[in-house]
Design brief:
- By secondary structure, this protein is of the alpha/beta class.
- The protein is 43% helix and 20% strand.
- The chain has helices at residues 3-17, 22-29, 33-45, 62-72, 75-86, 101-109, 123-129, 154-160, 183-194, 211-215, 233-241; strands at residues 19-21, 49-52, 55-58, 94-97, 117-120, 136-139, 143-144, 151-152, 165-171, 196-202, 224-227, 245-248.
- A hairpin with a 6-residue loop joins strand 7 and strand 8 (151-152).
- The longest helix is centred in the first third of the chain and has 15 residues, at 3-17.
- It is globular.
- The protein starts with a helix and ends with a strand.
Length: 249
């Protein structure tokens, strides 16, 4: 994990807990207290966190800042992955596109297509795709999450269950939140998987360095994984066992 990834993860951890001590962060990231202090000082000076004695707490703008940081993390790799996935989606296809910054980049990559029907629970994806007059963009109902424009909740699941589409496109956020930390988001993701004829996952290599992602074991539900580097041998075995196609951009 490089310093930028660690700092973004620190912001997410503090956001979930409201406060994190230097001792906790040192143990969590397996680095020295001096390294954590430098991270916290930098994040505090940039307005991402509030530095307090012995640790860090939240600033009011932390949630939005964390999302902005995720949008730029591994951006070039995400763009390559999105372009590779777009080549596997034909014109006039129907798609679900889920929450996640990687999925927003996929939406950008699909703008050269024609006649797509897209159902999404991501307001940012809808805003990107509404530029195309020949696209039919349908936005799910439900609770809007202020941090990233994601739509979640029981109403969202009920809405998604009305459709059966060609492709379900999902992603893993840098902190693994899609698969572990937000129960409502997990249930929406599962509804998308169950109502898609083919399921594509977009994930740059950093996503598979985090245990919360791997432990979920849902790779078996995929038809294809789009990434930028060959995954670990353990993940490769799961992909091979379940005939999941691997596309490396």
């Amino acid at each position: 994990m490089n310093p930028q990834q660690r700092q973004e993860s620190i912001v997410e951890l503090v956001r979930r807990q409201g406060y994190a001590s230097i001792e906790q962060l040192t143990a969590h990231f397996a680095v020295t207290p001096q390294t954590i202090r430098r991270d916290l000082n930098r994040l505090s000076s940039e307005g991402h966190l509030r530095r307090v004695h012995g640790g860090a707490g939240l600033e009011s703008s932390t949630v939005n800042t964390a999302y902005a940081m995720r949008k730029t993390l591994n951006l070039e790799a995400k763009q390559r992955i999105a372009a590779e996935l777009a080549r596997h989606v034909p014109d006039h296809a129907s798609l679900f596109i889920n929450i996640g910054t990687s999925n927003e980049i996929v939406a950008e990559a699909l703008l050269d297509h024609h006649g797509l029907e897209v159902i999404t629970n991501n307001l940012n994806v809808a805003a990107i795709l509404q530029r195309k007059e020949d696209f039919n963009v349908i936005v799910a109902g439900g609770q809007v999450r202020p941090r990233d424009g994601g739509i979640i909740g029981e109403a969202t699941i009920d809405f998604i269950n009305q459709f059966r589409v060609d492709f379900g496109i999902s992603g893993i956020d840098e902190d693994g939140s899609l698969l572990e930390f937000d129960y409502q988001e997990v249930r929406v993701a599962q509804a998308i998987i169950h109502n898609s004829r083919q399921v594509y996952l977009v994930a740059d290599h950093s996503k598979f360095q985090r245990n919360p992602v791997v432990r979920q074991g849902n790779l078996a539900q995929l038809d294809a994984l789009f990434t930028d580097r060959r995954p670990s041998e353990g993940i490769m075995r799961i992909l091979d066992q379940h005939d999941v196609a691997l596309h490396i951009a």
